[in-house]
Amino acid sequence: MQRRCARKARGKISREFIWSVLTATIYHIWMARNEALCQKSVPISTKVLKLIRMDAKYRIMEILHWKHTCKDKG
Fold first, then answer.
1. Alpha carbon distance 27, 33 (integer Å)
2. Which distant-in-sequence residues (6+ apart) come within 8 Å of 72 by Cβ?
3. For the chain, what are the domain ranges?
4. Over the stretch 37-53, which tens digit does the pLDDT of each residue have?
5. pTM score
6. DSSP H/E element including 41
7. Using CA atoms, how far apart are residues 17 and 36, in angstroms rounded to an integer?
8. Cα–Cα distance between 74 and 8 in angstroms, integer?
9. Which of 20, 42, 50, 59 is such that its CA lies 20 to 30 A from the CA of 65?
10. Which residues have a Cβ under 8 Å from the Cβ of 24 and sit 6 or more positions away?
11. How far apart are CA 35 and CA 27, in angstroms?
């Protein structure tokens, strides 16, 4: 599913954005599930969403910074 969504995006930055959001979403849902099973506690959904947003934001900032530095080198 991730690759299908990423292929529909136009441009490398759009694909990287979609890929980072999907990856962060899957990872944090998986971590919340593990926390619920192992610690027998229900994770707060707003906390999980906040973590997803932060991860996606920092990954996009990293991508944009990398793109900017590559342009400066060339």
1. 10
2. none
3. 13-73
4. 999 888 899 999 999 99
5. 0.68
6. none
7. 29
8. 29
9. 50
10. 51, 52, 55, 56, 59
11. 12
